[in-house]
Amino acid sequence: MPIPPKPIRRIIQDPDKVKKKSSNFGKWVYIALIAVALATGFFLLNNKSFSFSLDPYKPGDKLYLVDYLVNDTTFKHHLEPFYTGITPLKDDEIDEMNIDLAEKDLIKRNISFGDKAYGIENGYGISTDSLCKRKNAYIGTFVRSVHYRKKVDGAYESMTFYEIKPDTTVVVLDVNHIKDVPQTHKYDYDMNGLYFIEARAVTDKNTDKFREIKTNY
């Protein structure tokens, strides 16, 4: 006589519990993704500059100084500066320097834990008076945008710079705007160039309002 098969025991799960588990899992995945995105953004802002993937202008677009820099009399003789990026030296870079050990140790001690890369004025800039004389605020064409920092009263201020291909007829060199590179820093590859200008000083619209400039000035 054949042996009857054993009955199959089926476990029927409560559909509400299954739905709740699935919902909780999705929620934690969503939270984890947000945390990774925030951590990545924090790292970029505090440790490295980066170029935006979505630039506000296209390479080759014409750029102009904002109108108040050329029509407000308080900006008479104003030079809108260009910046170059610098970044703190690393220990191995200091070790390779052709100086004695005491100087190397001094440089290392002078590098603060919170030191970051930032932009310094390099001496070149846009003469706003030149723009007023020719009644045209055009300064050059757009290359790219870079999120970086500027040091203001000893504190780091995050901001956007535009690298431009300038109209050299309005670019001047003023030794009073040259900032020395600290011994603890070097030029930064990510913002290595002469023609980075603060984004807030630039627009893609020309103006027809210019302050008067005496021709004998």
UniProtKB/TrEMBL annotation:
Keywords: Membrane, Transmembrane, Transmembrane helix
Record-annotated membrane-spanning stretches: 28-45
Protein name: Uncharacterized protein
